[in-house]
Each structure stands twice: as C-alpha cells, then as structure tokens.
Amino acid sequence: MTSTHSGFRSKMLSRRRGKDDAGVHTVLRGGFSGADTESALLWNRHNPWTKPGRRGPLLAAVVLACLLHLVNISVPTLLLCLGMWGYHFAGFFRPLPRPGAKLITVAGALLFLAAAGTNEGLTVEAFVSLLVLMIALKLFELRHQHDATMTVILNYFVIVSGMFFSDSLLVTGYIAFALLYNTAVLVHVRQPGMALGRSFRLAGRLSLQALPFMLIFFIFFPRFQGGLWGRPTLMQERVGISDTIRMGSIASLAENTEVAFRVSFAGAVPPVGELYWRGLILWDFDGLSWTRGERRGLVPERTVRSSAPPVDYIITLEAHQQRWLYSLDRPVRMQQMRGTWMGNEGEILTWRPVTSRLQYSGTSDPRAERQQLQQGRLAQMGLQLPDAGTGNKRARELALSWQQGNPESRAVVNEAFNFFSRGGFRYTLSPGTPTAAGVGAENAIDHFLFTGKAGFCEHYATSFAFLMRAAGVPTRLVGGYLGGSLNPYGNYLIVRQSDAHVWCEVLLDGEWQRIDPTAAVAPERLQTNSLSRLGMDEGLTLDALFNLGRLPAWLQPLANGWDLLNMRWNQWVMQYSFAEQSRLFSRLGLDSSRGAAMLSLLIAGIALIGIVYFFLLVFLKPGVQERDKVALFWQRFLKKLDKAQIHYSSSQGPVQFLQHISSLRPDMADAAAAVVRPYVRLRYSKLGEEERSELEGQLKEAVRRFSVQALPKEQKKKPA
Predict the structure, then answer these.
(1) Dihedrals φ, ψ of 343, to 5°?
(2) DSSP structural state of residue 50
(3) How many CB atoms sit inside 10 A of residue 306's CB?
(4) How many CB atoms neighbour CB 508 within 10 A?
(5) What does the DSSP 8-state code read for residue 224?
(6) What is the phi-psi region of residue 270: left when phi exceeds 0, alpha when psi lies from -120 to 50, beta otherwise?
C-alpha cells in the first residue's frame, strides 16, 4: 500500500513538473502562499545552497562578522538579526519556505526604516545596522554561487567597520581572525568540493603572502596628519566630565574604572598630590549647576615659572566627545596641533569634539604662579551668584560673617577650611543628590552644609566656591582628574574616570591659587588612586572579566601587562601618523618631504619583495610529494602495508594490487578498497575541480582510517 501510494505521488509530481517549476518561480518573485508552500519546500530540498554543508560555513561567517556590532546597534535591530539567523539555523533541520523577491524588497525597505529610526538617524551606527540586516536578508536569496559570493564580500565591509568603534588590540585580533575565516569561506564558496579546513589553510597562506606587501605600504605610504583610522563622529554617549557640573555629577563616575587617558613622563613621575589634571574652568553658577559662561573681555593671565624643573609628558587621550584636552596643572607649553589652542586661563581647547584617540605632548610647571594682571571683569565673573532672595540664606549669612570679621581674603579662606575640617563632614562615594532628598535647587548648598554633610569632591568644591563668592573673594571651579595608577611595566600613569575631581582656584594677592576643599575633609584622597579607594574584591567577578580595572589585586599584574600591550599597539600602529612616519624616516636618514624619493622608496620596497617571492616560488620548487598530494597519500598507504609484509610491485596496477591484498588478507579487503577506488579515479579519470577536491578528501580520510591489524591465530596455523 505504501509503495503504491509512493509511486502514485511520484507520477503526479512528474506530471506536474511544469506547474511545480511555475510555483517555485512564483515563490521567488512575489512571496508564497499556502498553495505554493509545497513548491517552496520542493525548491528548498533541491537547492544545493540550502544544505547545511553549504550554508553552515556561510552563516557562521555572517554571525562572526556581525558579532562585534551587536553592542553598537539598537535593540530592535539586534532582535531582527537574531530572528533571521535563528530561522536560517532552523532550516538545517527541516525544510522551511523562503520568501520571494517582492517580499524581500518590501522587507529591505522596512529594515532601512528600522535601522534609521532606531539608531538616532543616518549615523555610522545606522548604516552598520542596515548592512548587518541586509546581509541577514541576503541569506534568503541563496540560489547560486554568485549569491553566496556577494554575501561573503559584504561581510568584509561589516568586519572592517568594527574599527570605527574600537581599535584595541583585542578587537583588532578578533577582526583579523574574522577576515581570515571570511576569506576561507570565500575559497570554500568558489570551490565547494574543497574541505573547509583546507580552505582555511589556503586563506592563511594567502594572508601570509600578502603580509610583507601590507607592511611595506603601512610604513612607506604617504599618511595623513592623524593616525591609521580617520574615524567619523559617532553618535554614542561617552562617559566623562561634561561642561556642566552639579552636585552628584562627578560622584556618578566614582566607580567607573574606564580609562580616561594615559600619561608617559620624560623623567620621574611627580608625587600624587601634584597630579592635578586640568580640564575646564567654570565661572557661572545658577544655584544648582556650574557652567563655563561667557569669556569675552577677560584679560589673559601671566604664568610666572618657578625655579623647579618643568615636567614633560605625553598624554594619550581617549575619545570623550568634548572640546577640551587635559594637561598637568600649570601648563606652560603644549604641542601645536591644528584646531587646538591654549586659552587665557590655561585651558587647552579644540575646535571639534575629541571623537577618537588623540596623543599630544606638553610641559607643565606645577609650582608656577598664574597672575591676573587686570581684575576689571572679575568682580562680575568671579563673584557672580544668583540673587540674594533666591535661596541658600544660611550659607550667605555664614560667608558674610567671615567677611566682616576678616578684612583679608586669605583669612576668609582659612575660616572656610576650618568650617569643613571641624564641622563633622564626611567624604563618600555615593552622596546622592539634593533633589533626591526632597530639597529644592535653590537651597541645595544650605542642605549640604548644615544638614547632609556627606558628599563627593564636587559637593565640597561647589559649596566652597559659593561661600567664597558670598564673602567677596573671587573664585572659580576647575574640573579634571586627580592622581592615577602607575603601570610598573611601562612606567606610565593610567588615569581613570573614577579619578575625576573638582577643585577651586581663588584669587589671592593677584594670583590664582589652587584650593582643594576636599583636603579639609578627606586628605587621604589627595594621596591615593581610585583603585585603592574602591577596594577591589579578592574574588574574580563577571564584571571584572569585561573591565580590567576591576580585577582583584592578585590579578592586577595581568591587567597592567595587557594595558601595556594595548598602549604600545596604539602608539606604534594605530597612532602611526605623518609625524611618526617623518621621525622614522629621519632615523633612517631619509627626507620625508621629498615626494619623489618617497615614491621611489615605496616602489623599491615592493620590487624587493617581488624578487624574494620569485626566488621562493621559482628556484625553491617544492618536492614531488608536495606537488602531488595523491601520490603522497598512496605512499602512506603502501608504508602501512609494508608492516603487514605486503609489498607493492611496480609491475602491478592498483586494481591488481587490490586483488593481491584481498587474497593475502581478506580481513583488510574492504578498507583497502576504500583507498584504491578513489585513487584509481583520481589517476585515470577526467574530473572537474570540485569532484577532484572531494575525492582527494575521501582518499586522505580512507588512508587515515586504514590500519594493519594482526593476523588472527586460526589463519596463522598451517594446514595438516
């Protein structure tokens, strides 16, 4: 009954071949319906690109290429990708219908809207998201080798775009592996009969052959002023100090151990108490927030150098999306860079936000004096406060009492210091905000000074500046970082976001002097780094695996070693700019300003590599066994037979030799036949490249499995 039904179904399928083909074309052109589902499944079964052996490596290459971007794309885009990948994976186990061209076109338009609408417009992230979605959608169109090839080529763009978001050594290593695997899949797609392992080895060999040319072009090719990657501005939030400081804004960085910048010193590292990293200066206060304010009409300050030797250093600044750079306090010289200048108050400003890693050098004199020559506008800027009727009445009264009892500004500063040191204040990493305590913005200072008395550095700096201004002493806020952690392997300083700090500068006797009110409450803050204050756990946590700054103390040497590798990678490779190239050529005695000489040098380097390759490929020919893999496998087979005292004669053909093996050792006949059959076809049949590659794989596997076993005892006995 079953066979009759099967035969009838086979005849019906044969009669309706034309209808089925039409149904398949309907599926391909405009989607599928219930009537076309069987045709779609039939096409699915007969399409070679739906087989797991063909589609599996391709799907793995797509996932490997897109895996790096899963943290950069939006959540809806991520869910769409996972859904489509899951659908393709499920197709390995059972035939699933495929959408047609019209449906794919509509889906492509919807995915474009999804990528643009969920990634803050047409940003770099949006285009990467769209490319990731399009590749996942392209997998539904796999019908020919050309479709698979286009998918692999698109993967290259997705992989390389990972450098827009991170250029760390770990990410670069991942990208290199993804490129290698993608190349192996490209070879596998173009040569379907070639095993994936063999394709991977061929891709590795091609990459090694291209490596010398890549190095020549990297070193000698004319470069831009920036580093290796001129990355565009990315629309993603950056953690760090902003141009608005209020109570609680700096405390939010207290436990963030991400690197803000690294500093290499020409000489000895200064004491921790002198490591004030100046960023921006804030003048305006609205009762809750401090901002930079309007600078017009402000007279430049004069820096008077001290007798102490200056401190030379090089800063490698991470992208922070702000328009200022950091320097050791009291900078006297900074590296000249396009679009960068030193402001009147010692700020290092830039025209554009810092959107990629930046390296620059500077010189500071921490003991220098910054003198204010004219103080005309300081009465407005350094003493500006909200109107007296807007709040913080108790703080104003306290400051007024200090002013009336002390005619000199320095005595007022001492009164404030004594107030903080003896007033029961407490330094904490999690102080909260005044609004969270139910206090209005207009009385935030009063609440902190007379009720809360627990705060982070910005609480003490902002309240101290308020008191000074209320007492008639010009004061401004300075935002930056304090301290850092020394990496003993590279002898450089790592300044993290948790080292963020705010302090005050007070105008005393015509000189801006640094006053840090945090020292009155927690003097140990000025002598320790953030990792010591955080008190890392001794156990290894999941968070520490993704953030080296949170590794326990016994693993910090590993973190320091890895950070050193990343820093050297950034300095020697990612930050290899025109200036670095010029310095390298100067050491080699070359003039980088002569374009003709540079071009000649580049051509000479390529020619030299070409000559080396010529000698390696022509004069150093590989041996016979390397050129003929079939012969190599056959020799391995004969060596195994020699152990069983079965020897091959040149007068025997392979088939005759198989008969000879079967007569002597019937127990090995099947295993020997598995070797001889593909060998005969490879030697005496005309084969295509795909079939030849497949048979070579079969021969290699059969030789590997073939083993010479001891002759059974009953066969060893001679007949009576």
Answers:
(1) -75, 175
(2) G
(3) 13
(4) 16
(5) -
(6) beta
DSSP-derived secondary structure for 56-113 = HHHHHHHHHHHGGGTTTS-HHHHHHHHHHHHHHHHTTTS------HHHHHHHHHHHHH
Partner residues linked to 87 by β-bridges? none
Average pLDDT, stretch 236-261?
80
DSSP per-residue letters across 470-497: HTT--EEEEEEEE--EEETTTTEEEEEG
The predicted pLDDT at position 361 comes to 92
Q: What are the percentages of helix, strand and coil residues in the chain, rounded to 5?
A: 55, 15, 30
CB 89 within 8 A of CB 59: yes
C-alpha–C-alpha distance, residues 83 and 66, integer Å: 14
107 pLDDT more than 50:
yes
**CA gap 460, 44 in Å, rounded:** 70
Residue 11 pLDDT greater than 50, yes or no:
no
CA–CA separation, 187 and 190 (whole Å): 5
Give backbone dihedrals phi and psi of 223, rounded to 5 degrees, phi first.
-120, 160
- The whole-number average pLDDT for the span 273-277 is 91
Of 203, 148, 154, 212, the closest CA to residue 180 belongs to 203
Q: Which amino acid is at 467?
A: L
Cα 142 from Cα 306, distance rounded (Å)? 73
Whose structure tokens read 């004594």? 418
Q: What is the DSSP track for 387-446? A: -GGGS-HHHHHHHHHHHHH-SSHHHHHHHHHHHHHHTT-EE-S----TGGGT--GGGHHH
Do the beta carbons of residue 81 and residue 144 sit within 8 Å? no
For residue 616, give the 3-state DSSP assignment: helix
- Among 15-24, 104-113, 230-239, 437-446, the range scoring the smallest mean pLDDT is 15-24
Three-state DSSP class for 285?
Answer: strand
CA distance 666 to 134: 58
Under DSSP, is residue 200 helix (H, G, I), strand (E, B) or coil?
Answer: helix
In this predicted structure, the answer to whether residue 711 has a pLDDT above a threshold of 70 is no
What residue type is assigned to position 697 of the chain?
A: G
157: alpha, beta or left, given left = phi > 0 and alpha = psi -120 to 50? Answer: alpha
Token pair, residue 570, equals 């950034």
User: How confident is residue 280, by pLDDT bands cut at 50, 70 and 90?
Assistant: very high
Q: How far apart are CA 576 and CA 568, in angstroms?
A: 11
φ and ψ of 707, to 5 deg: -140, 145
Give helix then strand counts, H and E, for the chain.
27, 21
Residue 544 in this model has a pLDDT that exceeds 60? no
Residue 12: what residue type? M
Q: How far apart are CA 152 and CA 186, in angstroms?
A: 6
Instruction: Dump pLDDT digits (tens) for 417-472.
Output: 999 999 899 988 877 666 655 566 778 899 899 988 898 899 999 999 999 999 99
**pLDDT (tens digit per residue) in 399-421:** 999 999 888 899 999 999 999 99
CA atoms of 258 and 243, how far apart (whole Å): 19
DSSP secondary structure of 532-559 = HHHT--SSPPHHHHH-GGGS-GGGHHHH
Quote the tokens at residue 620.
């150093």
CA distance linking residue 60 with residue 42, whole number of Å: 25
User: What average pLDDT does the chain have?
Assistant: 77
DSSP letter (8 states) at residue 2: H
- Strand-pair category, 500-508 with 475-482: antiparallel
